[in-house]
Design goal:
The structure holds two protein chains of two kinds.
Chain A: H1 3-37, H2 52-62, H3 74-91, H4 109-130, H5 134-165, H6 170-175, H7 187-200, H8 212-215, H9 225-250, H10 261-282, H11 288-317
Helix pairs in contact in A: 1-2, 1-9, 1-10, 3-4, 3-9, 4-5, 5-7, 5-11, 7-9, 7-11, 9-10
Chain B: H1 2-13, E1 39-41, H2 56-60, E2 66-72, E3 78-86, H3 95-99, E4 105-107, E5 122-123, H4 125-128, H5 141-144
Antiparallel strand pairs in B: 1-4, 2-3, 3-5
Classes of the chains: A mainly alpha, B alpha+beta.
Chain lengths: ~325, ~170
C-alpha cells in the first residue's frame, strides 16, 4: 500500500468520523443553543458542559425496541431510513475540508450533491408510503412535494456561483474565492440557497413534513429505535451538509487568516449550524400553501433573475 | 422578511439575558413562608402538644391520608394516641391546616422528602412532631378555651371571667 492510498483511506475515515461525531454533537448543540435563546441552561448535567448527554442519547436510542408495524411494507420500511443516511453521507464525499483534503474531487461536485439530495426525496416518500399510516403518508407527500419544489431553485441559485468560478468542482470554487467571498457578488444567491437548504432538510420554519402539531411526526411516525435514529442522524448530517456547502460556496470555504484551513472550514460550518438553530428558535412554521407559493412564486423567479443578472455581468465583463 | 430578521435578532439577544432556571440541587429555590410542603405537628408555648385529636384534619383531607386515634391523659387533655400521615397520598392542599382549630397541624416550606421505599413515606407521630410553635407563636389552645383541665379550672382562661352562679343574680 503506497502513501497515497493510505492518505485517502485516512481522509475517508476522518471525514466519516467527523460527520458522525458532528451529527451527534448537533443534538447537544441544538439543545444547548435553543436553551440559550429561551433563557434556560439546557442539558448540563452529564459530563463537562452536558456533553455526556450525547452519549446517553446514543445508548438510549440504540437499546430501544426496533419495531416494524405489522401493517407496514416491510422491505421498503427498512430501506427508507438507509437511503437518507446514505445520501447525506455520500454528499460529503465531494466537500473539500482543506486544500486537497476531500474524499474525492469530482468535476461535477455540485451536480453530484444536487443529485444525491434528489435521491434523498425517495427516503421520505418511501417512508411515508410504506408505513401504511395516514399521517405518515401525508407527511411523506408534503416532504416530497416540498423537497422537489425547493430543489429546483436550490440548483438554480448555485449556478451564479458556478458561472463566477467557471467550474462545478468545489475545490475550484473555493480556490476562486481567494480574494473575495462569493457572498458579496452572490448575496441573493446565498439567501435563496440557504432558504432552500432549510427547506431541503425540512427544518423549522419549513418542517411541514414533520409538523408535530398536525401530523404526529410526519413520515417517521411509525419508526422507532435505531431506524428513527437514522432519520434523525440523516437530518443532522443534512444540516451539516447545507452548512458546509454554504461555507464552501459563499463564505470562502477553508480561506481565512492565521488559523489552519480545516479549522476555518469547521468554524464556518458550525456558525451556519447555529443559524439553523436560531431559525428554529425564532420563526413559526409556515402554512403549506404559503410554503409552496413562497417557493414557486418568489424564490424561483428570484433565483432565475439572479442567474440572469450574473450571466449578463459576466458577459459584459468579457 | 424584515419582521423575520427582527424576530431572529430579538431571539438572539436572549443569549445574554438572565437565566430563569434554578439549578436545583446546588441552588435552592426561594420558598414563601406559607409554601405548602411537609406537614408538621407543633407544640404550644409550654412545650405540650397542640393537637387535641378532634379529627377535623382527617375529615377535611380530600385524599384521606391522615389517620389518628384520640385519647385523653390524666389531666383531661385530649391528644392523639397515634397520628399517621401517608405522604405518598398527600396532595399538599393545606385543607388540614385550614381545618385545624388549634393551629397544631401546619404545612412547612420543605419539599425534599423523597424516599426509595414507598413505606418510608408513611410518617408516624414522632416523625411529624417538631419542637416549636411553627407559624403561630404564643398560641395555646387550652389558655384561650373554656375547657377545664387539670391546673386550669373554669374561667381561668385568657379574657375569661370566673363562672357566675346564676342563682346569685336573682333579684
Amino acid at each position: 500500500m503506497d502513501f497515497e492510498t493510505l492518505r485517502r483511506l485516512l481522509v475517508i475515515a476522518g471525514v466519516l468520523g467527523w460527520l458522525v461525531l458532528t451529527a451527534s454533537l448537533n443534538i447537544w448543540i441544538e439543545r444547548r443553543l435553543l436553551a440559550l435563546w429561551q433563557d434556560r441552561y439546557g442539558p448540563n448535567r452529564v459530563g463537562p458542559f452536558g456533553l455526556g448527554h450525547v452519549l446517553a442519547d446514543v445508548i438510549k436510542i440504540s437499546f430501544k425496541e426496533d419495531w416494524i408495524p405489522p401493517f407496514a411494507d416491510k422491505a421498503v420500511f427498512v430501506l427508507a431510513p438507509a437511503i437518507i443516511m446514505t445520501t447525506a453521507l455520500m454528499s460529503f464525499a465531494v466537500v473539500p475540508f482543506a486544500p486537497g483534503i476531500s474524499v474525492i474531487d469530482l468535476d461535477v461536485a455540485i451536480l453530484f450533491i444536487l443529485a444525491l439530495s434528489s435521491i434523498g426525496v425517495y427516503s421520505v416518500a418511501l417512508a411515508g408510503w410504506s408505513s401504511n399510516n395516514k399521517y405518515a403518508l401525508l407527511g411523506g407527500l408534503r416532504a416530497s412535494a416540498q423537497m422537489l419544489a425547493y430543489e429546483v431553485f436550490m440548483g438554480l441559485s448555485l449556478m451564479g456561483v458556478v458561472a463566477l468560478a467557471g467550474s462545478f468542482s468545489l475545490h475550484d470554487i473555493v480556490a476562486a474565492q481567494e480574494d473575495m467571498w462569493f457572498v458579496v457578488p452572490q448575496a441573493l444567491g446565498f439567501v435563496v440557497f440557504f432558504i432552500a437548504g432549510v427547506a431541503e432538510t425540512h427544518r423549522l420554519p419549513f418542517d411541514l413534513p414533520e409538523a408535530e402539531s398536525e401530523l404526529v411526526a410526519g413520515f417517521h411516525s411509525e419508526y422507532s429505535g435505531m431506524k428513527f435514529g437514522m432519520f434523525f442522524v440523516g437530518e443532522y448530517i443534512g444540516i451539516t451538509l447545507i452548512s458546509a456547502l454554504t461555507a464552501t460556496l459563499f463564505f470562502g470555504g477553508w480561506h481565512g487568516p492565521l488559523l489552519p484551513p480545516v479549522v476555518w472550514f469547521v468554524l464556518k460550518t458550525f456558525f451556519f449550524i447555529s443559524v439553523f438553530v436560531l431559525l428554529r428558535a425564532s420563526l413559526p412554521r409556515l402554512r403549506y400553501d404559503q410554503l409552496m407559493a413562497f417557493g414557486w412564486k418568489i424564490m424561483l423567479p428570484l433565483s432565475v433573475a439572479n442567474l440572469l443578472v450574473t450571466g449578463a455581468i459576466i458577459l459584459a465583463r468579457n | 422578511m424584515f419582521s423575520n430578521l427582527r424576530s431572529m435578532w430579538i431571539v438572539f439577544r436572549h443569549a445574554f439575558a438572565k437565566r430563569v432556571t434554578v439549578q436545583y440541587p446546588e441552588e435552592k429555590p426561594v420558598l414563601a413562608p406559607r409554601w405548602r410542603g411537609r406537614i408538621v405537628l407543633t407544640l404550644d408555648p409550654d412545650g405540650q402538644e397542640r393537637c387535641v385529636a378532634c379529627n377535623l384534619c382527617s375529615v377535611a383531607c380530600p385524599v384521606s391520608c391522615i389517620a389518628l386515634q384520640a385519647t385523653e391523659d390524666e389531666s383531661g387533655r385530649r391528644y392523639p394516641e397515634f397520628f399517621r400521615i401517608n405522604f405518598s397520598r398527600c396532595i399538599f392542599c393545606g385543607y388540614c391546616e385550614e381545618a385545624c382549630p388549634t393551629y397544631a397541624i401546619q404545612l412547612t416550606p420543605d419539599f425534599e422528602m423523597s424516599e426509595y421505599k414507598r413505606q418510608n413515606l408513611v410518617y408516624e407521630k414522632e416523625d411529624l412532631m417538631v419542637d416549636g410553635q411553627g407559624k403561630y407563636p404564643g398560641y395555646n389552645f387550652y389558655r384561650v378555651a373554656g375547657l377545664a383541665i387539670a391546673g386550669k379550672g373554669k374561667g381561668d382562661a385568657e379574657n375569661e371571667a370566673p363562672p357566675v352562679d346564676v342563682r346569685s343574680l336573682l333579684p
